[in-house]
Specification:
Number of helices: 12
Distance between the termini: 18 Å
Largest sheet: none
Helix content: 55-70%
Low-confidence stretches: none
Structural class: mainly alpha
Mean pLDDT: 90
Strand content: under 5%
Number of strands: 0
Length: about 325
């Protein structure tokens, strides 16, 4: 085990999870444009708090007056993301030690640094392009990719021996990870287009099994730049199409990951992992249904994002455990 690198990677992974959850909190509380500029907030290192500073900020940005309850959320998220960048930079420095170079950690760390710097650019574009949906989705998926790569580094630097029980079901694990990533992207697209409440009932949608939907409009990726997308711009049929696609994807994920969990539980060597996966899966589906029935309460919606990230973590751990060692 590469102890120092492993510990730092674990800390960075925990911070990345916090950034993801805090980012969901910012997005779901409509604070994504709490600061209309970047990297500062109304031209300041922190957000305006005193009355003179607020008045000056309002004069400088008359199109978006200061809302302190939104501005502080956005800036805390930026501070934490900045701390994560520093941790990834430290991982790159550690990766140049001879032992870590031989373990193949240097290339992975360098790729991770490139990814997180691009992620910072996406964070800037999220603000400057006024919540452009494709940028919001890319920012979300970039955060999950950063978290996933950090977890892979944790596994790579701390655990080497694969499990033969996992190797035998590797195709199912790979399939499960694939459908989960697609579903996470669909969830991100649902959130970016404010479609979570397009269907306020369950299991029906607006009293029908499948109401009028506009898939063509709902899944246009490249939309006009310069529009303020806060609150969404799509009509109801377009949002219904996005929402119902996300529901359908959830069914596929539940079937495939549920089957994987049962396969794991049947084997005493992997039983604990099966119970963890099954518990996370049931929790995620339950939170998704409660989002609809309770009209998207903020704590529940944030938890839905957090458990989604934990499901990704579990699948990456299973993937690493099923990867045969190279000679």
């Amino acid at each position: 085990m590469h102890t120092a690198f492993h510990r730092l990677a674990a800390i960075a992974a925990i911070v990345a999870l916090c950034v993801i959850v805090l980012g969901a909190f910012v997005r779901l509380s409509d604070a994504g444009l709490g600061c209309p500029d970047w990297p500062g907030c109304y031209g300041q290192f922190s957000w305006p708090m005193e009355a003179p500073a607020v008045a000056e900020a309002n004069r400088a940005f008359p199109e978006r007056p200061v809302e302190s309850e939104k501005a502080w959320k956005e800036m805390v998220h930026r501070y934490l993301a900045g701390a994560l960048v520093m941790l990834v930079l430290a991982l790159n420095i550690l990766s140049w030690k001879s032992a870590n170079r031989q373990a193949g950690l240097r290339l992975l760390s360098a790729l991770l640094l490139v990814l997180i710097l691009f992620q910072a650019a996406l964070g800037m574009w999220t603000v400057t392009l006024k919540l452009w949906p494709i940028v919001v989705l890319s920012h979300l998926m970039g955060g999950l990719a950063t978290f996933g790569m950090l977890l892979w580094l944790v596994c790579r630097s701390g655990f080497s021996a694969p499990s033969q029980a996992l190797v035998r079901i590797r195709p199912l694990i790979v399939t499960g990870l694939f459908v989960l990533v697609i579903q996470l992207a669909l969830g991100g697209w649902t959130s970016a287009n404010y479609s979570a409440l397009a269907c306020p009932d369950f299991p029906t949608c607006q009293g029908e099994m499948w109401p009028d939907s506009d898939f063509r409009e709902g899944f246009i990726v490249w939309r006009e730049i310069g529009i303020d997308y806060e609150g969404g711009v799509l009509d109801l049929p377009s949002r219904v199409a996005i929402h119902m696609t996300h529901r359908t994807g959830a069914l596929f994920v539940f079937i495939i990951l549920g089957w994987l969990a049962l396969r794991l539980i049947r084997n005493t060597e992997t039983q604990a992992g099966g119970y963890v996966l099954g518990t996370l899966l049931v929790a995620q589906v339950t939170l998704g249904i409660l989002n609809i029935l309770l009209y998207l309460p903020l704590p529940n919606a944030v938890a839905h994002n957090g458990v989604g990230a934990l499901l990704l973590a579990m699948m990456i751990w299973l993937l690493h455990g099923s990867t045969p060692q190279r000679a």
